[in-house]
Design goal:
The chain is α/β, with parallel strands linked by helices and about 450 residues long. The chain has 16 helices and 14 strands. The chain has helices at about 40, 50-55, 75-95, 100-105, 110-130, 160-180, 200-220, 245-255, 270-275, 280-290, 315-325, 350-375, 375-385, 390-400, 405-415, 425-435, and strands spanning about 10-15, 25, 30-35, 35, 45, 95-100, 135-140, 185, 195, 230, 240, 265-270, 290-295, 335. An eight-stranded parallel β-barrel has the order 5-6-7-8-10-12-13-14, surrounded by four helices. A two-stranded parallel ribbon has the order 1-2. Strand 3 (about 30-35) and strand 4 form a beta hairpin. Helix 3 runs parallel beside helix 5 and helix 11 crosses helix 12 (about 350-375). The longest helix has 28 residues, at about 350-375. The protein is globular, with a radius of gyration of 24 Å. The mean pLDDT is about 100. It binds D-xylose and calcium ion (CA) (2 copies). D-xylose binds near residues 186 and 338. One calcium ion binds near residues 270 and 271.
Length: about 450
C-alpha cells in the first residue's frame, strides 16, 4: 500500500523553541509528569468522522477538502482507503486510539443486512491494520441521527419500528467495539429531544431511552464488553431541546433509571459551553459524582452560538481541564478530538497542523495543571476557605449530629456571624496567570 500523506514526516517532539510546524512543542510522549508518562495521561484519539470523512460541507456550501484518498466515494474501496489514511495519520502522530460511528466506516446500504456485511468486512480490515501497532479503539457508537428515519429520535422515537432499527444499529456497533477492543461505548443523544411539547410525551420518551440503554448494557455484557458506557451530554443542536442537557441532567437521568453503575459521561468542551457552563464545570460535576469517564477535546467560539467543534487552542481551558482530570486520578477513557478543521483549512497538511495544535494544547495544559498542583497556592486557599468547618459545630453538622432547632439556638447566642472571609478571586486569577506564563 502506498503512502497517502507523502509530504508529511513522522511528527516528533522538538521542544518549545522549535519553529517546525510539523513538530510537537510540548507533547513529549515519554516525559514523566506527576509520576506518569504524558502518553498515559493523554490517551489521544482520532475521530474517524471529522478527520477521514468530513470535507467542510456546511449549511451554505459544499466540501472544500478532498477526503477521497484516491478512491471513489461511496464504495468499499473508499472505506478501505480511509482505513489506510487513518492508520498512516495515527502512526505519524503517535496517536494510539480512534473513535468511530458505524456509518463513518462504510457507506450505509438500503438494507441493514448489507450494511452489517460491509461493517464485518471493514472491521476485519481494521483488525489487520491494528496488528503490529499499539493502536486501538477508544470508543464506538452508532449514528442514530443522520438517517431520515431518526428524525424524531432513536430511543425517543414515536415509531416502534424505528426503535427496533436503533436497537439493531447499537447491537452491531457494540459487536464492532468489542471486536476492535474498545474501551467504551458512547450514546450521544443527538435527536433524543423535542422541537415542541405540543406533540411530545416526554415521560414516555425518556423511559424508552432508558430501556434501550438497559438493553444495550445487557447485550454488551453478554458479549464480553467490560468497558464503560458513556452518555455525552449536549443541550441542543440538532434538536431545540435535548434530554441529555448537561452533566448534572445526565447524571440525574442515569440514577433515576438505575443505569449509573454501567455508565459514565463523555464530556465535550463545546457541549458544556453550549449549555451555558464552562468546560471545567461539567468536568467537575461529573468527577464529584464518580462519573468522569472520557473527554471530547474541542472548543467553541464565544461569538458563535453553535457547535463549532474547533481544534482546541485555548491553553487556559485545557489547563483547567487537566487540573480536573489529574484530581480525578485520570480517565477510564481518553481524549477524542471531536474537532474539525475550519472550512478554508482544506489541505492534508492542515489535518496534521490541527492535531499538532490540539495535542500540544493539552500537553501544555497538563504541564501547567501539574504546576498548579505542585505550587499548592490554589488548593491551599480552597482548603483554608472552609476551615471554619473544622470546629466542633462544623463537625456536628457534617456528621448529622445536630438539629435545625439547635442550630437556631446557636445562632441566637451569636447575635451576628462575622463576614465569611474574602473570596480573593482576583488574587487567585493572578496566581493562575503567574503559573501559566512563567
Ligand atoms: C455531536 C457529537 C458527536 C458524538 C458522537 O455533536 O459530538 O460527534 O461525539 O456521536
Ligand atoms: Ca460538538
Ligand atoms: Ca462529541
Amino acid at each position: 500500500m502506498s503512502e497517502i500523506f507523502k509530504n508529511i514526516p513522522v511528527i516528533h517532539f522538538e521542544g518549545k523553541d522549535s519553529n517546525n510546524p510539523l513538530a510537537f512543542k510540548y507533547y513529549d510522549a515519554d516525559r514523566v509528569i506527576l509520576g506518569k508518562k504524558m502518553s498515559e495521561h493523554l490517551p489521544f484519539a482520532m475521530a474517524w468522522w471529522h478527520n477521514l470523512c468530513a470535507g467542510g460541507t456546511d449549511m451554505f456550501g459544499r466540501d472544500t477538502a478532498d477526503k477521497s484518498f484516491g478512491a471513489e466515494k461511496g464504495t468499499m474501496e473508499h472505506a478501505k482507503a480511509k482505513v489506510d489514511a487513518g492508520f498512516e495519520f495515527m502512526k505519524k502522530l503517535g496517536i494510539r486510539y480512534f473513535c468511530f460511528h458505524d456509518v463513518d466506516l462504510v457507506p450505509e446500504a438500503e438494507d441493514i443486512k448489507e450494511t452489517n456485511r460491509r461493517l464485518d468486512e471493514i472491521s476485519d480490515y481494521i483488525l489487520e491494520k491494528m496488528q503490529g501497532t499499539n493502536i486501538k479503539c477508544l470508543w464506538g457508537t452508532a449514528n442514530m441521527f443522520g438517517n431520515p428515519r431518526f428524525m424524531n429520535g432513536a430511543g425517543s422515537t414515536n415509531s416502534v419500528d424505528v426503535y427496533a432499527f436503533a436497537a439493531a444499529q447499537i447491537k452491531k456497533a457494540l459487536d464492532l467495539t468489542v471486536k476492535l477492543g474498545g474501551r467504551g461505548y458512547v450514546f450521544w443523544g443527538g435527536r433524543e429531544g423535542y422541537e415542541t411539547l405540543l406533540n411530545t410525551d416526554v415521560k414516555f420518551e425518556q423511559e424508552n431511552i432508558a430501556r434501550l440503554m438497559h438493553l444495550a448494557v445487557d447485550y454488551g455484557r453478554s458479549i464480553g464488553f467490560t468497558g464503560d458506557f458513556y452518555i455525552e451530554p449536549k443541550p441542543k443542536e440538532p434538536m431545540k431541546h435535548q434530554y441529555d442537557f448537561d452533566a448534572a441532567t445526565a447524571i440525574g437521568f442515569l440514577r433515576q433509571y438505575g443505569l449509573d453503575k454501567d455508565f459514565k459521561l463523555n464530556i465535550e468542551a463545546n457541549h458544556a459551553t453550549l449549555a451555558g457552563h464552562t468546560f471545567q464545570h461539567d468536568l467537575r460535576i461529573s468527577a464529584i459524582n464518580g462519573m468522569l469517564g472520557s473527554i471530547d477535546a474541542n472548543q467553541g467560539d464565544m461569538l458563535l452560538g453553535w457547535d463549532t467543534d474547533e481544534f482546541p487552542f485555548n491553553v487556559y481551558d485545557a489547563t483547567l481541564c487537566m487540573y480536573e482530570v489529574l484530581k480525578n486520578g485520570g480517565l477510564t477513557g481518553g481524549f477524542n478530538f471531536d474537532s474539525k478543521n475550519r472550512r478554508p483549512s482544506y489541505t492534508p497538511e492542515d489535518m496534521f497542523y490541527a492535531y499538532v495544535l490540539g495535542m500540544d494544547t493539552f500537553a501544555l495544559g497538563l504541564i501547567k495543571a501539574a504546576e498548579i498542583i505542585e505550587d499548592g497556592r490554589l488548593d491551599n486557599f480552597v482548603k483554608e476557605r472552609y476551615s471554619s468547618w473544622q470546629n466542633e459545630l462544623g463537625q456536628k453538622i457534617r456528621n448529622n449530629r445536630i438539629t435545625l432547632k439547635e442550630l437556631a439556638e446557636y445562632a441566637d447566642s451569636l447575635g451576628a456571624p462575622e463576614l465569611p472571609g474574602s473570596g480573593r478571586q482576583e488574587l487567585l486569577e493572578g496566581i493562575m496567570n503567574n503559573i501559566l506564563f512563567k
